[in-house]
Specification:
Oligomer: heterodimer
Helix content of chain A: 25-40%
CATH topology of the largest domain in chain B: Cytochrome-c3 Hydrogenase, chain B
CATH topology of chain A: Rossmann fold
Distance between the termini of chain A: 18 Å
Number of domains of chain A: 1
CATH class of chain A: Alpha Beta
Number of strands of chain A: 5
Order of helices and strands of chain A: EHEEHEHEH
Shape of chain B: globular
Largest sheet of chain B: 3 strands, antiparallel
Structural class of chain B: alpha+beta
Order of helices and strands of chain B: EEEHHHHEEHHHHHHHEEEHHH
CATH class of the largest domain in chain B: Mainly Alpha
CATH superfamily of the largest domain in chain B: Cytochrome-c3 Hydrogenase, chain B
CATH architecture of the largest domain in chain B: Orthogonal Bundle
Number of helices of chain B: 14
CATH architecture of chain A: 3-Layer(aba) Sandwich
Largest interface: A-B, 39 and 42 residues
Helix content of chain B: 40-55%
Strand content of chain A: 5-15%
Number of domains of chain B: 2
Strand order of the largest sheet of chain A: 2-1-3-4-5
Chain lengths: 153, 360
């Protein structure tokens, strides 16, 4: 955890998930798992956030919303796709209104599997995302361009 | 006439865990009209019946919503069991009741937390969610999952719960009651909470009936309606079930209804644990559904309705689910008109919206 030198703020957006992963994301923020002790705060504002937690898959109507939230976030930024739906479309991948995982709309850095993803694995995914964030921050500091969507796992 | 402004609310908004979009037409600070638009979470899972065999569909239907997933799985199973004329063992019925009511406890605690968050009482939100973890632990211990359980199947249940675990569940829930009472006192009696809830978003009994409100929204407006009562479910009748009704019709009344239901559900679970008979938890199922059937379930948010139509094949012809939030959106739009902008998050939350249920 040595690389958590700053307090990373997260923003959460529900693509078209069943709520299962969303309430697990919120469970991470509340006393039992309490990621606030690491300085991680859920921010409602994309401009304040470093990490985008996206749950659920992408459809035609929410694709522009997801892209807009991503574009509003400032560099360096990391996207964590949470749950089977955000990774690949999950149980709904054959539905007529589903395009696929979150990576169909925006570059994804870390994939967290599970249906629903457990809080432990969500926290693990965010911590992996923080390592990616630290790398990107160094690149930004050196004035290099940040390549988007480097996969941690 | 004051100048009108349109404020877009959502789909991404800090108070909403799920995306729904409202166009709020304002005159100064007062909402004149709220125009909802939905479709951000539509997946089209009812159409999946053409690709999944009916016994497999349980896992898909459960994923309509992660908050009331047990109720959805149970509703689908009830619909198919009714369709095929299957009588499940009594022990399975009791266990379904226990898990369904446990789901209500978890859902209402979740909602209370989100409500506290919506009026900016963050420590209350955190405390409520801390209590909710006790319920999730019980779910995990008995079903193996925290939010998606996959424990219901057509013909009964996939797993039994032993007597020790049931005793543990009873003990944990008994310990939980005083902790919930402490929180309930803040929600019901605290003056700052009251100033945000009392008299906000009043929905009269006539309006609630005319707009077709269901669940705690209808009961908060004084309508004595509950599927558990109307279906004359034998188990609930035996346990002496009587719905919690409040008459004020404002946000505070809807909050009180849900708090009373928390205690009621815990009492129902404890009574069911005392009465649960021994025996099998599933019966073998042969053949395929051939008829049409409608089953109804009282979800934490209100009445949910499951229609199934079979054709004697492995694939059903049609599944149709009508969820409570769908029925409550007209009531929400009604309460929003004339409200203050600052009260909008509270009014949206008091119907306990579940958008992924609504859009499926």
């Amino acid at each position: 955890m040595a690389y958590v030198t700053k307090s990373p703020w997260v923003i959460h957006y529900d693509g078209s998930s069943c709520n299962g992963c969303d309430i697990e994301v919120l469970a991470c923020l509340t006393p039992m798992y309490d990621v606030e002790r690491f300085g991680i705060i859920n921010s409602g504002n994309p401009k304040h956030a470093d990490v985008l937690l996206i749950t659920g898959s992408v459809n035609e109507q929410n694709k522009p919303v997801v892209q807009q939230i991503y574009d509003e976030m400032l560099q360096p930024k990391v996207v964590v796709a949470i749950g089977a739906c955000a990774c690949t479309g999950g149980v709904f991948r054959e539905c007529y209104n589903i395009i696929g995982g979150a990576d169909q709309a925006i570059p994804v850095d870390v994939y967290v599997p599970g249906c629903a993803a457990r809080p432990e694995s969500i926290i693990d995914g965010v911590v992996k995302g923080l390592a990616v964030l630290a790398e990107k921050r160094e690149k930004v500091a050196k004035g290099e361009t940040v390549t988007e969507g480097e996969q941690a796992e | 006439m004051a100048k009108r402004t349109v404020i877009p609310f959502g789909p991404q908004h800090p108070v909403l865990p799920e995306p729904v979009h409202l166009d709020l037409v304002l005159e100064d600070e007062t909402v004149v009209e709220a125009i909802p638009s939905i479709g951000y979470i539509h997946r089209g899972l009812e159409k999946l019946v053409e690709k999944r065999e009916w016994p497999e569909m349980v896992s898909v239907i459960e994923r309509i919503c992660g908050i009331c997933s047990f109720g959805h799985g149970m509703g689908y199973c009830l619909s198919i069991e009714g369709n095929m004329g299957i009588q499940i063992p009594e022990r399975a019925e009791y266990l379904r009741l226990i898990w369904h009511e446990l789901g209500r406890v978890h859902s209402h605690l979740l909602w209370l937390g989100l409500l506290a968050d919506s009026f900016g009482f963050e420590s209350l939100y955190m405390h409520t969610w801390k209590l909710r973890e006790t319920v999730l632990d019980l779910f995990e211990r008995t079903t193996g999952g925290r939010v998606i359980f996959s424990v219901c199947k057509v013909g009964g249940l996939r797993r039994d719960v032993d007597a020790d675990t049931l005793a543990l569940m009873e003990r944990k829930l008994t310990e939980l009651v005083p902790e919930i009472e402490e929180l309930a006192k803040v929600f019901i009696e605290d003056s700052s909470v009251g100033s945000r809830l009392k008299g906000v978003g009043v929905l009269t009994a006539e309006e609630a009936a005319a707009l077709g409100a269901v669940g705690p929204v209808a009961r908060g407006s004084g309508l004595r309606m509950d599927v558990r009562l109307e279906e004359k479910d034998r188990l609930y009748v035996d346990l002496g079930f009587e719905p919690c009704v409040e008459t004020a019709g404002d946000s505070h009344a809807r909050c009180v209804v849900r708090i009373r239901e928390l205690f009621q559900s815990i009492e129902l679970i404890k009574a069911a644990i005392q009465r649960i008979p021994d025996g099998e938890v599933s019966v073998p199922v042969k053949g395929n559904p051939e008829r049409e059937y409608i089953a109804r379930v009282e979800q934490p948010r209100g009445e949910a309705y499951y229609y199934s139509k079979g054709a004697g094949e492995k694939f059903l012809k049609r599944i149709r689910v009508r969820t409570p939030t769908n029925a409550n959106i007209p009531a929400m739009v009604k309460t929003l008109a004339g409200a203050q902008l600052a009260d909008v998050p509270i009014l949206i939350l008091t119907i306990d919206p579940c958008i992924s249920c609504t859009e499926r």
